[in-house]
Amino acid sequence: MTVGTTARRGIDGLASVLRIVGMLIVLVLVLHIVLTLLDANPANTIATTINQLADTFNLGLSNLFLPPDHKLRIVLNYGTAALVWFAITSVVVRIVRRIP
After folding, report:
1. Do residues 65 and 73 lie in contact, with contact meaning Cβ atoms separated by under 8 Å?
2. What is the pLDDT of residues 67-78, one digit of tens each?
3. Measuring CA to CA, how many Å separate 81 from each of 4, 8, 25, 46?
4. Is residue 23 pLDDT above 90, yes or no?
5. Which DSSP string do the residues of 12-54 spell out, in sequence order?
6. How far apart are CA 4 and CA 65, in angstroms?
7. What is the dihedral of CA 22, 27, 33, 35, to 10 degrees?
8. Is there a contact between 49 and 56 (Cβ–Cβ < 8 Å)?
9. How many angstroms separate the CA atoms of 46 and 43, rounded?
10. 74: which of 36, 89, 90, 91 fits an S-S bond (Cβ 3.0–4.6 Å)?
């Protein structure tokens, strides 16, 4: 096994880990939107955890749009954050994979 092959495998592994982490963040944001739309019990442990994680990963976009409807506000703000995380993940993974 050559050094180039080992390095390539390491870079590909790193890119895969970064993609998984990014997609898990997107999943948390989408789950927060779904739980909000379905009126999940906010006192539930799972709903609380998802809410706290979504607040951590919202990139400061939780008050970007301020429509009067709470559910629409969540969909717009956290949906935008999910799209931004998806784009960031895609760009970072592409850059990492281009490392020679």
Report:
1. yes
2. 999 999 999 999
3. 37, 31, 10, 21
4. yes
5. HHHHHHHHHHHHHHHHHHHHHHHHHHTT--TTSHHHHHHHHHH
6. 48
7. -150
8. no
9. 9
10. 36
Neighbour count for residue 29 (Cβ, 10 Å): 27
Percent of the chain with pLDDT strictly greater than 70: 97
Is it the case that residue 6 has pLDDT exceeding 90?
A: no
Handedness of CA 59, 64, 65, 71 (dihedral sign): positive
3's enclosing H/E stretch is helix 3-37
Instruction: Check residue 28 and give left, alpha or beta (phi > 0: left; psi -120 to 50: alpha).
Output: alpha
pLDDT of residue 55: 97
Q: Show the CA angle centred on residue 43, arms to residues 42 and 45, nearest 5°.
A: 100
Cβ-based neighbours of 66, under 8 Å, separated by 6 or more: 73
